[in-house]
Amino acid sequence: MKLKLLSMSCTLALAGWTPASQAAVTFNTFVDSSDLSSTLGNNATIGFAYAGDKFVGSVYYGSNNNQLYSTDLTGGNVAKFGSAISGFSGEIYVTSSLGIGGYGPRDVFAGSEAAGRVVRVAHDGSTQGDFVTGLTGGVRSMAFDPYGMYGNQLIVATNAGNIYTVNNTGSATLLANVGEDAEGLSFAPQQFGTYAKGTLFVASEGSGTLRAIAPGGGITNAVTGIYGAEMVSFVPLNLGSSGNPVEGFYSANYAQNVIKASASDFTPYLGDAIVTSETYHTVHRVHWSGTSFDVSTIGQFPAQPEDGIFVTADVIKPSVPEPETWAMVVGGLMVLPLFRRLRSRQG
């Protein structure tokens, strides 16, 4: 919801935070405003996702609101991606499949707050169509379960507070209802307080609550009082390990551009939750001290934070084949010697 800007005279101290003496996280422009404007006539960035050989994003109301765009891995060569999506408007959210859970690698999925449906776009943008329909509430956030606690399925949250699991055929199952909009979601890469590795967390801007959602649908208020909580994203444990410059943290910087912080900025926070505030335009670290969750301020956005993602070695490298694929590969390797012997006899 774009009801902007509460007075900055409302200090973080009033919100229960002590600002860091010096921002540990700094941002640089990744996708330039002029490139977005020249291609779309719109630089009001909202969604942003890594899709293997490209990034894919979206923009807010106005020109090309329902048209996704792509960039190369340096943030350049902005181009329209796929076709304009009929019926989509407002905030458009995007994510990309991981090649697990029966999903193909790097297809792009888009959902709109104006519609309870998700569209799948082929990785190359050549085809697209409805994947999930009939959800209660407009789509507010989406991500794939990378750890398997939720079956490696697509998780979709709506402005009605519904959290769904979606399998690879597009069949949606209600997992939980948090009672309010859930605009951010992510998965813990290790045990986080009393919550197991892989646990799903959702953030709600209205109440500033970070909630844990168990695989059986149980809901726990993990952290409260993060006012304007917009996005939650856990810092991966191997962030920066590949040395690939693509690694880092990316975010839509509404209503200007897309920005990036280097992987090294987050190495002190591996395994922690990063939550951005739409109210204060700040970046917060949620850390388990051993007895409680501590919230601290580690950065300031140039404008207003929207979708944010970490790109790591795990998502850059090709996905690990599923068991069925390994069986085919091994079967093929076993057949090769026989084929060679037959050819030698024929020769």
> N-to-C SSE series?
EHEEEEEEEEEEEEEEEEEEEEEEEHH
Q: Indicate the percent of residues in helices.
A: 10-25%
Unreliable parts:
1-22, 318-346
Number of β-strand runs? 24
Produce the secondary structure layout.
Blueprint: E1 28-31, H1 33-40, E2 45-50, E3 55-59, E4 68-71, E5 79-81, E6 92-98, E7 105-112, E8 118-121, E9 128-132, E10 139-144, E11 154-158, E12 162-166, E13 172-177, E14 184-187, E15 200-204, E16 209-213, E17 219-223, E18 229-234, E19 248-254, E20 257-262, E21 273-277, E22 282-288, E23 293-300, E24 304-311, H2 313-316, H3 323-346
Antiparallel strand pairs: 1-20, 2-3, 3-4, 4-5, 6-7, 7-8, 8-9, 10-11, 11-12, 12-13, 14-15, 15-16, 16-17, 18-21, 19-20, 19-24, 21-22, 22-23
